[in-house]
Specification:
The protein has 374 residues and is an alpha/beta fold. It is 33% helix and 18% strand. It is built from 12 helices and 14 strands. A 10-stranded mixed beta sheet has the order 3-4-5-6-9-10-11-12-13-14. It has a two-stranded parallel ribbon with strand order 1-2. A hairpin with a 4-residue loop joins strand 5 and strand 6. The N terminus and C terminus are likely disordered. The protein binds S-adenosyl-L-homocysteine. The site of S-adenosyl-L-homocysteine (SAH) has 16 residues, from strand 10 and strand 12.
């Protein structure tokens, strides 16, 4: 086993970190150690529904089973090492995932619900021109335990809301590209939708991607979650510069994947994310081109005013231009919302999450995004 796999599945003593195991994996794991499937379901409930990580406190498990768990497993969540709250109620948590890396998680409160924005990688290789995470480089994929741990810790926070469901929506829009870490993402999606764990409705879990086409297809066959696509440009020349993964999977391919996604989930629509960059992609002609592009796709558009971060050369489109852009899309029959910037004063808005990442990526392996395009 490579050191990376070891990290992903177990601690240095070889114990399995059960926090990241979905129901089937847990059933297999306990089954291989002489326990029954219903024991796995009990353990799942203790960990995720009750927030208990200490096997000694799982009092309805037989003593022999508890002894086996203490010997062969643990249940470890990365420590939360920082917490900041914006005046608008947005809350940012910092999780230390190892000595060199920390990732950020954001709670976005709305009138009657709280959305959790979860990170999937320490850094990101995609290097989208307008994103703070991309500018930092990439260290590593998070493990399933490190991804679901962000929710687990906040869900069971003793200072948090005492309601039965402290979080109503989960969006994979934090640091990283979730589909580039599909292997770890998959068990987490199953835990989110599992009634014995978090029991989220399939309408309340959203995976956002910059456009990893083969993995969009895989997601559509293996899971039933909402899909958000970070489009940001309606022609390949511009998208190549803003979202460099477009060079590998250009717009025609990406939109075909969106159509296949909806064909497999006919009741769904794709959420199209479009960041508004002053003078770059926000002209009325861009809006018309976007409307044409989306004609054959059940889609809802979210216009995201660009959130600046230190060192960026981009600026946010003026409000009047965003409104004019929206008006054209609506005129073409596209449901279009403008995303309210949230948590800006604590750098917790879309694209501002940077955590603390030890970049291990040699420059030549990053998708080059010409900074000149601003
Ligand atoms: N990698 C995934 C999810 C992470 S980013 C993806 O690309 O979809 C979540 C959303 O925030 C994406 O739509 C992303 O393009 C957008 N975003 C990134 N940087 C931004 C910024 N500085 N201002 C506004 N939105 C930004």
């Amino acid at each position: 086993m490579s050191s990376l796999e070891l990290h992903a599945e177990s601690d240095p003593a070889g114990r399995a970190n059960l926090l990241g195991f979905d129901r089937a994996a847990l059933e297999n794991w306990v089954g291989a150690r002489g326990a029954r499937a219903f024991h796995a379901r009990q353990i799942l409930g203790w960990i995720h529904r009750r927030g208990i990580a200490d096997f000694d406190r799982m009092t309805d498990l037989a003593l022999g089973l508890r002894a086996m768990l203490l010997e062969a497993a643990d249940c470890v969540c990365p420590p939360a090492v920082g917490r900041a709250v914006d005046a608008d109620g947005t809350e940012k948590w910092l999780f230390q995932v190892d000595a060199c890396n920390a990732v950020e998680t954001v709670i976005i409160p709305d009138e009657d619900r709280r959305t959790l924005c979860v990170s999937s990688q320490a850094g990101c290789v995609l290097n989208c021109a307008f994103c703070a995470t991309g500018a930092q480089g990439f260290s590593r994929n998070l493990t399933s335990a490190e991804i679901v741990g962000q929710l687990w810790r906040i869900w069971h926070d003793p200072d948090g809301s005492k309601s039965d469901r402290p979080i109503q929506n989960v969006v994979f829009m934090g640091m990283g590209e979730p589909l580039a870490n599909y292997h770890a993402l998959s068990p987490v999606l199953r835990l989110l939708l599992d009634d014995l764990a978090y029991g989220f409705s399939k309408w309340r879990v959203t995976v956002s991607t910059a456009g990893l086409v083969p993995l969009i297809d895989r997601l559509s066959t293996e899971h039933d979650v909402a899909l958000a696509v970070s489009l940001h440009a309606a022609d390949d020349a511009l998208r190549d510069r803003l979202v460099p993964i477009n060079r590998a999977h250009p717009l025609a391919e990406l939109l075909a994947a969106c159509r296949r996604y909806v064909a497999r989930h006919p009741e769904r629509e794709i959420l199209i994310e479009y960041v508004m960059l002053d003078g770059v992609n926000d002209q009325l002609a861009d809006a018309r081109a976007l409307a044409r592009l989306l004609r054959a796709i059940p889609a809802k558009v979210n216009l995201i005013p660009f959130n600046p971060f230190p060192g960026t050369a981009f600026a946010t489109s003026p409000e009047s231009r965003i409104l004019a852009f929206q008006k054209i899309l609506i005129g073409q029959g596209l449901r279009t919302l403008i995303r309210k910037p949230r948590g800006q004063s604590i750098q917790a808005a879309c694209g501002q999450l940077a955590g603390s990442v030890a970049n291990r990526l040699p420059e030549q392996f990053r998708f080059a995004s010409p900074r000149a395009c601003a």
